[in-house]
Amino acid sequence: MANPETPKISYWHLWTGHDGSTHQTRCELTNFDWQSMGGKAASQWNNHLLSGENSLLFCVLPVGWNGDWHENPKPQWLSVLSGRWFVESTDGTRVEMGPGDLAFGGDQNAKPDAQGRVGHRSGTVGDEPCTILIVQLDPKIWAGAKPGDFK
Description:
The protein has one helix at residues 139-142; strands at 9-16, 22-29, 33-35, 44-46, 55-61, 66-70, 76-82, 84-89, 94-97, 102-106, 120-125, 130-136. It has one domain (24-29, 52-151): Jelly Rolls (Sandwich), CATH 2.60.120. The mean pLDDT is 94. Helix content is 3%, strand content 46%. By secondary structure, it is an all-beta fold.
């Protein structure tokens, strides 16, 4: 098989600005290598984004679930498997995500705004639970990651 065009994967990056307010920026993963996973497997596009100590968990948010203003407990990648949910940052940006959407939660070190809101709020959208796969990263390394830190 010929080497096809290098892929890009879009994701939402929730991050904290210098003043402690939170924002969401659309970013892309672009650092893919054309390689085999080993053995006789054909080549594919791989982005070896992270290695080291990480945690993997699955969450099921029930219908009507509301996560009022809070920070992500650790820097974390989130991928919606089923259902829909929203994330709203203190700058007023609200993003709704569904199956296949990818996001990075990096709003650690957020500070309360004039209304006392800190980090983000999130909740389910619609009439079905939202299932999310989460990979939590080492906060000593990844807390404070900004848009563009991941390629």
